[in-house]
UniProtKB/TrEMBL annotation:
It comes from the Bacteria. SUPFAM superfamilies: S-adenosyl-L-methionine-dependent methyltransferases (SSF53335). Residues 42-134 form the Methyltransferase domain. Transmembrane segments: none annotated. GO terms for molecular function: methyltransferase activity. Gene3D superfamilies: CAC2371-like domains, Vaccinia Virus protein VP39. InterPro entries: Methyltransf_25, SAM-dependent_MTases_sf. This is Methyltransferase domain-containing protein.
Amino acid sequence: MRNANLLTDNPVLYEARFPDEVRLAGRWAEDCLRRYGAGPRVLDIGCGTGRDAAYLHGAGRTVVGADLSEAMLEHARAHHPGPEYIRADLRGFDLAERSFDAVVCLDSALLYCHTNDELDGFLTSCRNSLAPGGLLVAEMRNGAFFLGRTELLDTTSVNELSWQGITYRSTTTLRVDRAAQLLRRTRVWTADDGSPPVEQRSAWRLVFPQELRHLLAVHGFEVLALYDGPGPRTEPPWREGDLPGATADADRLHLVARLTRAH
């Protein structure tokens, strides 16, 4: 068995596995930006294949999409044109100071900051990249969901998809690493073309709502909204006109914060 990230190495396969034809995540982000009065200049950090960055561009914004994966960036430039795409690490990036009105970070990308230093690096970089009063809009897994709840840990998830005439099957298991405060994922891919299985290991930081409020305050942000749903990956999903919820204990967490104190 070889180790690789089959999805990030193959962005077309990523989009086939996680389809979003109606651009639900981009529409939700645009709704947040409008609701809280963000200006036109947006950084989509951890932009992946560029679908959401391109949607925001189509909504009339000036967008920079940033990601660490060159494969994802090449795909974004070819298939989702409009934004400028650059390589950057969300755990610490140095872009034009105070050049953005909003930073958008979707699909749990923020949670690839595994340590406190990495979370500080992300928020420091956001602060340095935002104009005064700029917004941080993020969507991620909710660490609070895993306090005494195990339904996502007790079930193995199996999915199949076909790509270029080959059928792929993924088997995914999750476990909580309590000491590191990480949700660890193991995903094994098999294919019907006889190729060896591919094992992918990854992890997300389990960040809790009150912890996140504290981190944001330390970095000069005021939390405007922090809630579990509705959002682009909730069930039922967010729909146009839906208002932010009032609870924060389901499996997704949605954040809107304003920079009130630049350093």
